[in-house]
Specification:
Length: 198
């Protein structure tokens, strides 16, 4: 697995942030503008940031696995980073398909009794989305910030609200934002920084 590293500004890192990218089948990769912006933002705020390329992307081996193998890979990366820096808090950050993967990772860690310190999910797919793809997004995500664009045409806001309703999961809706938060990335940036400021 190829992992891009953004080193923290300053001395001791505030923690580790694993930032995941959008759908590889649609050209998503670790250098996509949204994960790239979030990684740069977090490194400037003092976080050690790891951005994996999912299976079959960049120099990562394997083939797309609909989020199952990708979540296993991120869990392995999480375990390795925690072993190398024991006791350091870890934040999971994901955009689009990367948010779906991070939801699976957060759920698995919580089930193991080792929840991520914080989770930030933006543009997360749930249910049926554009292209007739279906996502069974896990529920019960502790300390999760879920951000969605009001005008998201790839993942309708209604689908995310349907996912959130049974568990009363709050959703932060950015008015006028599309799936890629075009023109609204500063808002997304502020929300993520605020959630990880504790």
């Amino acid at each position: 697995m190829e992992v891009l590293i953004d080193l923290p500004k300053g001395s001791a890192p505030r923690g580790i942030a694993i930032v995941c990218h959008p759908q590889p089948l649609l050209g998503g990769h670790a250098m996509h503008k949204v994960p790239h912006l979030l990684a740069r933002t977090l490194s400037e705020a003092g976080w050690f940031v790891a951005r994996p390329n999912f299976r079959g992307v960049g120099r990562s081996g394997g083939a797309h696995d609909a989020g199952i193998g990708e979540a296993q890979d991120v869990l392995a990366l999480h375990a390795q980073m925690c072993a190398e820096q024991p006791g350091v808090r870890v934040a999971l950050v994901g955009f689009s398909f990367g948010a779906f993967v991070q939801a699976k990772v957060a759920h698995a860690l919580a089930q193991r009794g080792q929840p991520a310190w914080r989770t930030c999910l933006a543009g997360m797919p749930s249910g049926e989305v554009e292209g007739q793809r279906r996502y069974e997004t896990p529920v019960d995500l502790p300390d999760a910030l879920v951000v969605h664009g009001e005008l998201d045409d790839r993942v309708p806001l209604a689908a995310v609200l349907d996912w959130a309703r049974p568990q009363s999961q709050p959703i932060l809706v950015v008015p006028g934002a599309d799936h890629f938060f075009t023109g609204k990335l500063p808002v997304l940036r502020r929300l993520v920084l605020a959630h990880l400021a504790g």
